[in-house]
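Worked example 2:
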Amino acid sequence: MDIAAIDRMLYRPYRKLRYEIRCIASLHPLLYDRLARLKEGDADGPTRVTRHTGLVIEAFPRSGNTFAYFAFQSSQPECVRVAHHLHAPAQLVRAAHWGIPALLIVRDPLDAVCSFVQREPVVSLRQGLRSWIRFHRSLVRHRHHFVVATFDQAMTDFGSVMQRVNRRFATTFGVFEHDSGNTAACFRAIDERNTRLSGGVAPDESGVARPSAVRNAAKAVLKAALAVDALATLREEASCLYHDYAAQAGEDAGIAQTPGVDARR
């Protein structure tokens, strides 16, 4: 067997192991802070939380993080320091400890995992589902220190989400007007960034951070694969976690619409 064949044989196990190590590290703020420094660079790329951060926006991968970031920045009179896109619970734990305004976006686990595996095919469905559970389970005891929004809320009415952030943290962030023109502008900005990062070449549709008809067909196949009995226990745990967070998102929305209620509890 030649060297190239050995490299191909070892590539997938190596990537799976590297992903697993990163997921475990992302649970620990001090450890992950060291790793996060290596990912910073691009102006709109992953950014770690510091004491100078104005807002943290985080989520499991493929959960609306990119749209939320661009929608937020497009609504501000000047650029705000936002910690985002590290997909690390450590980001939100640090924000909770330092009292920094923070938003967690939560997507249905089956949709999030299928979309993530499409982008990262070296990650198995079981590994992706375990990672989704680990991410959200680690934040349960901190979750009342940040605003929770569902993926649907972020993608259809991000203005209301930011009103909740402002009410919870007594901030005055600009509020996104969620109409077709502003939404299209955000998707254009996302495509422009993706093209810039890919060296001027249109990015693969399997990885773009916006709706894609190309991914929808493949997602049905992956969802069927997730429905097997062997994954039933993981699906049930993920579903329970998701519904707990979604309920909090509903509670937050109710608070935001009730004048005179202190939403910083």
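The radius of gyration is 19 Å. The longest strand covers residues 55-59.
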